[in-house]
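Hello,

Following up on my earlier ticket. Below are the three sequence lines again, exactly as submitted.
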Amino acid sequence: MLLELKNVSYTYNKDTSFAVNALENINLQISEGEFVGVIGHTGSGKSTLIQHFNGLMKPTDGQVLYMGEDIWQEKYDLQALRSGVGLVFQYPENQLFETDVLTDVMFGPKNQKLSPEECRERAVNALRRVGLKDKYFTASPFDLSGGQKRRVAIAGVLAMNPKVLILDEPTAGLDPHGRDEILGQIRKLRDEMGITIILVSHSMEDVAEYADRLIVVNDGKIAFDDTPKAVFAHYKELEAMGLAAPQITYLMHELKERGLDVDINAVTVSEAKKSIEKALAGRKKH
Amino acid sequence: MLREITIGQYYPADSILHKLDPRVKFLGTIVYIVSLFLVKGFAGYALATVWLAALIILSKVPFKFMVKGMRTIFFVLIITMLFNLFLTPGETIWSFWILKVSKEGIIQAVRMGIRLTYLVIGSSLMTLTTTPNQLTDAMESLFSPLKVVHAPVHEISMMMSIALRFIPILMEETDKIMKAQIARGADFESGNFINRIRNMVPLLVPLFISAFRRANDLALAMEARCYHGGEGRTQMKPLHYAGRDYVAFVLLAAFLAACIVLHIFGGGWI
Amino acid sequence: MGIIKAIKLGFDYIKYGEDDKDNEKVRAIDGIDIDVEKGSVIAILGHNGSGKSTLAKHINALLLPSEGTMWVDGMDTKGEEDIWKIRQKAGMVFQNPDNQIVASVVEEDVGFGPENIGVPTKEIWERVDQALERVGMTKHRKKSPNRLSGGQKQRVAIAGVVAMRPDCIVLDESTAMLDPNGRKDVLDTVLDLNRKEGVTVIMITHYMEEVTRADFVYVMDSGKIVMQGTPREIFSQVEKLKSFHLDVPQITELAYELKKDGVDLPDGILTRDELVSALCGERTEE
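Thanks for your patience. The regenerated structure is below:
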């Protein structure tokens, strides 16, 4: 098992009158090569949850295991953990600080104490992986467009060669084109390099399209943990949590209710299209 | 962790202190700080303690909340006390290596400890019961005679109130950037002094850039909302002294007078 | 003449190079003609960098045109004597909720605009009370903005504009940094203002779901208006929109795909109900 949380709880301001339970008894296993979507409304505890994966937050109760080892045992190398579990925060472009793109991306590898040549090679590879053109490598990160900056910041984490890449809303504030590009590149990281992806998102449509497992966090607990299809079947419960299923889910349910024999579990446009066309063909026959 | 700083934060409550005119509170705080350095002897400190305790009770701000704010200056407090303890010349009562503790040093250290603690609690009482905007209004009003000599009183008070509004935001931002860089393997905790300073660059550069961007955005937003300096501006909450404010002034004057008396005639014990 | 009208609007800015000689004049918007009818809801759509925010900043004279003319309620924005009147008539809500709130208490922030234009104290209070009520933030009036969610902060910003008694509100990507619930809150708030008070709303956005709620849409690309029409007219041109790096709502896309495959559907389907009716026939009373 790559990552595992065992009975993890986290309480802010523990032992004071301001105590707030952010996470309650979370049990979770993530295996290599998964593409996991994490969904939950603001304040549900999902940000707290992902910061437990790379040891930025320490659970007030329970255990966090990386490759079978408790990361909070004595003498555990947290630096090494953070190389293995990369975390890209929301609006990661806010962390850029170097005078040129390449040097900025080299920051992570440098902290891993790699040789300058190796740092450079890692940085160049990472930047190409996120689709940044070579001509921008020497540019100041502050002269780039919003979408480009975002990709440089993701490359900054990718250059550390993580086994797991956690991204907190990597598409926030981007336009549709920028969003599709970044999500497409993230999918490639999983498909081509086998990097395990944990994607926090507000967009049901995006997780339906990209993730093969979906974790719904609500009130500091895991409400659902299943395939997106299976989770969206509970769309009424999702609504009660202040979330919503993808538009397609609602459509398919309404069509079914109106007598068109469609697959109510379709969640993407292409699945819906196939299912509707099949149902329409079936209707003609009768 | 940075979010826990309570100095300079407003604590909403419905108390007489909250209702007082901010000018009274501002002058009162200055008087109290002066008095801390005026009083001596047991009676003097007792008076300062009673005065402070009364205000804390009147403020309806939980004492715990104030103490939490103290934590952040604990370090400064200890350093100051140590300096006084070891560096005050006088009758040596204990020595170790080059460190000498004198009787005067102990007294001075205790005195400074009390003064600093009271000073911080006293002034945080003002900020806890007064919104930053009220406070800057008070300062603008109190310093407005300086406008005659073309001092930018309005501009300075506006700058201060904006700074106060953005302090918590920048604190949170610092926290976020710090975590983001730690996730990239940055180390803010080990190494010698020079290294530590150098390690701060990945934190400070993004923080400055963000602060500039925010300043730029805010300037634009203020302009869009018709801000054009103090000229022709009205106030939503103009300051008027009420009956309670006059009472407060009288009490304040009495307190100051008592402190002066204790300064001249006080003594005793320490 | 409409409340907002622009003729052949152009704006250049100087991009500073390393050297004075490298300074480049960049045309951010070019030959823009718009005419907005009082009381309507307008969406301006375009990818990041298409010039839509530059256009928005012309509407309340934060930027003055290099070419052409912009009129707000008949006043030329270049005429300096009217500048405060223009900014009061056409209020603006920006993208980042934190960077536009000036005061540390909600109600004081709402009063900031009226203070600036010299409204008497008693009337400021009336306006603040009304504005807070209008956006549903009365119960948070004594709070610090830092304790509010993103959507609530934007509603405070809207109240700040409402307190100026504007004829027009410009939302410059005001929902881009919000979660889906916050986005919905903000959108509902401005649409309600439009319905009940007849305030003209101009939304700059790249969320397609917001665009479907508008009466009229302008699509921008490279500083020019490249498409205009009702949402239905705009969204029936799926390929063209995609060529401008834009997207269509999932339902519209699905309808378009089905139609391409020969399913008999009308053009420019925008909502779920429309698609359900088109596929299953109008709902008949049973």
